[in-house]
Amino acid sequence: MSTPLIAISCGEPAGIGPEVAASAWAALRQEVTMLWIGDPRHLPAGVPVAEIETPDKAAQVCADALPVLRHDFAAPVQPGQATLENAQGVIDVIARAVDLAQTGVVSAICTAPIHKKVLMDGAGFAYPGHTEYLEALTDAPRAVMMLASDALRVVPTTIHIALEEVPRVLTPDLLRHTIEITDHGLRTQFGIAKPKLVVAGLNPHGGEGGAMGRQELDWIVPLVAEVAASGTDVTGPWPGDTLFHAAARSGYDAAICMYHDQALIPIKTLDFDRGVNVTLGLPIIRTSPDHGTAFDIAGKGVANPTSMIEAIRLAAKMAGS
Fold it and tell me: Would you state the pLDDT for residue 301?
């Protein structure tokens, strides 16, 4: 399609997803063509809505009203109070958005936050989160989570596991796949012809010659050298405490980190509101705001839509690439 069309899945309707989606539409309606999939009852009062029968109608109405592909849920919503009866609806909307992307009806999807425990308790959701469900829906062998902003792009090799589990889960195959998927994603979805990647060390000071851990010497250094020899522009491992100052960041397109907080602390410190979650390794483009459902502020009109705005904008930019 000549003009990218972004589908926004509603996410947990009792969270801030519907209101930040509505605010993002208001901010971007002259810039990005989008549609929202969900139950119109769950959108904030006063938002101009145009229910559309098919996605191709979104471009005709987007400038004046939020285009909505109606997906009826089992129950109404009280902001801040999740309803288990709506769990299956949340899951079904994600699947519907993915189907639209896989069939080329939309250019990309932007997913509003879900509450995993609500989905597990209400519908037996069998996945740790969005990423794993998207892998299953698209038959992707492995997806990689990237957090991106204008200031920094980071990729955690291991994600939602206890820190004590990281050395066991972190394997040469996992790190190799993470580097390769990141390199491919930056080329194909970000339009970077020759991405420059850096790999962070696992241990303090990169192990300091084995005095603070041997993973770097035993296999990380040889692996990075092997991947680099195959044509990928990747260096490391570099000590994690020296990778994120301004001069260092100017020298690479993305940093491959070893665990969750090593990646997320620097980007949330540098650009908390504008960080976007991008899933690489899927056959579709998927972005998401880098925040949760925020039940404590849902419906109060104080949720910051900046991350959702940036997620939709980045999805459109990636689709254009």
Answer: 92
Burial track 284-308 (b if 16+ CB lie within 10 A, e otherwise):
bbbbbbbbebbbebbbeeebbbbbb
For 77, counting Cβ atoms within 10 Å of its Cβ (0-12 exposed, 13-18 middle, 19+ buried), the class is buried
Domain with CATH 3.40.718.10 in the chain: 1-140+282-321, 143-281
Is the distance from CB of 213 to CB of 244 less than 8 angstroms? no
Answer for the pair 189, 280: CB distance below 8 angstroms, yes or no: yes
Stretch 124-146: mean pLDDT: 93
Beta strand pairing status for 276-280 and 144-148?
Answer: antiparallel
Q: pLDDT by residue (tens digit) across 245-271?
A: 999 999 999 999 999 999 999 999 999
- The angle at the Cα of 246, spanning 245 to 248, to the nearest 5 degrees, equals 70
Q: How far apart are CA 195 and CA 129, in angstroms?
A: 28
In sequence order, which residues have a C-beta less than 8 Å from that of residue 267 and are 6 or more positions away? 147, 149, 151, 152, 154, 275
CATH architecture of the domain with residue range 143-281? 3-Layer(aba) Sandwich (3.40)
Taking only the tens place, the pLDDT of each residue in 17-45 is 999 999 999 999 999 999 999 999 999 99
Q: Give the integer Cα–Cα distance in Å for 239 and 263.
A: 13
* Rounded Cα distance, 321 and 319, in Å: 5
pLDDT at 292 exceeding the cut of 90: yes
Query: Is-contact 49 122, C-beta < 8 A?
Result: no
Q: What is the CATH number of domain 1-140+282-321?
A: 3.40.718.10
Shortest CA distance to 24 belongs to which of 321, 318, 320, 316? 316
Structure tokens at 149: 């902003």
